[in-house]
Write a structure and sequence with these properties.
Blueprint: H1 13-22, E1 33-38, H2 43-56, E2 60-67, H3 76-85, E3 89-94, E4 102-109, E5 112-125, E6 142-146, H4 149-152, H5 154-167, E7 182-189, E8 192-203, E9 211-216, E10 220-229, H6 233-239, E11 254-256, E12 262-264, H7 288-301, H8 303-308
Parallel strand pairs: 1-2, 1-3, 6-7
Antiparallel strand pairs: 3-4, 4-5, 5-10, 7-8, 8-9, 8-10, 11-12
Length: 315
């Protein structure tokens, strides 16, 4: 057995709990993101990483030291940091003459790079550049995607999925109206991606439902797409595979419509509607002749009734 194949056995209870937290789970934990500075960064990239970190907190780790790495050429350092910090999302900032003000969004699968997309910053307004009130830390944002390109272009489809994974935050069972405070709006237009961040203001409307207004709070980005590294379709299927225990078991004779209404189908034996008791009315009452004919018909059908019928000579 080689050293790589050896199973790591915990020596203390603390290390045992740590290894159990890293084991595969039926229900995924909230995805954490690591934000890494490259070997060469500009002031724009540094401030952009800080602002995105403030939107992602507390599910993010910001590395302040510079790391000389090139994600599109060598991914070993990213995979090392992913395993060390237990992060399945990453944002890498870099700057050079050929590609100035770069932000590379990416995600991991089994601590290996699944896909990543490089975006160049053309225009940037930081959080402190907009003098408005901000949302509290850890607010789950509403994600809005505008533009037909997000549905037709293959690369923008992957970008939409990647940005949704990056900014969606924790999965919650229910949401209260007052908790809808933050909106992230993505627009794809003329080959560019615009990111705007808004705070939701609930105003008085004179009725139970409040009037909603959006106030820009920053940061604001104008992106242009550059390089992409997309996984194959087979690898995407493997990454999206769910365990059998999470798949809902199909119940017989139960269906739901588009509005979520539940319908059930009942199976019953065939009923004889001729013997069904209906409302008694004078008009529906059988006459003497009709009653005698009905009794004679029943006697002919039932041989046991013929034996019980009295003889005319005995009368």
């Amino acid at each position: 057995m080689t050293q790589l194949d050896a199973v790591v056995k915990p020596k203390t209870k603390r290390s045992k709990r740590f290894l159990q937290s890293r084991e595969p789970k039926l229900t995924e934990n909230t995805k954490n993101a690591m934000l890494i500075k490259g070997g060469n960064t500009s002031e724009t990239v540094t401030q952009a990483l800080k602002d995105i970190y403030s939107l992602k907190k507390p599910n993010a780790v910001l590395y302040k030291k510079k790391n000389i790495t090139r994600p599109f050429e060598d991914q070993t350092s990213l995979e090392f940091f992913s395993k060390k910090s237990d992060c399945s999302l990453f944002l890498f900032g870099s700057h050079n003459k050929k590609r100035p003000n770069n932000l590379t969004f990416g995600r991991m699968f089994d601590f290996h790079v699944l896909d990543m997309i490089e975006l160049g910053i053309e225009k940037f307004i930081p959080l402190k550049g907009i003098k408005n009130s901000k949302c509290p830390e850890g607010t789950k944002p509403l994600l809005v995607f505008t533009g037909d390109s997000f549905e037709t272009d293959n690369e923008l489809k992957k970008l939409k999925s990647l940005l949704t994974d990056f900014f969606r935050g924790p999965t919650v069972p229910s949401i209260r109206l007052a908790g809808l405070e933050h909106v992230l709006h993505f627009t794809a237009l003329d080959g560019k991606i615009y990111l705007r961040s808004y705070k939701v203001l609930l105003k008085k409307s004179g009725c139970r439902t409040p009037r909603i207004e959006l106030e820009e709070m920053g940061p604001s980005f104008d992106f242009v797409m550059r390089r992409t590294h997309l996984a194959s379709d087979d690898l995407y299927k493997t990454a999206h595979r769910q365990p059998k225990a999470l798949k809902a078991k199909k119940k017989k004779n139960i269906s739901h419509d588009t509005f979520g209404t539940k319908y059930g189908r009942l199976h019953m034996q065939k009923q004889d509607l001729s013997k069904l008791q209906t409302r008694k009315m004078k008009g529906l009452k059988k006459r003497r002749g009709e009653a005698a004919a009905a009794a004679a018909a029943e006697a002919e059908e039932d041989p046991a009734a013929k034996k019980q019928k009295p003889n005319e000579h005995d009368a």
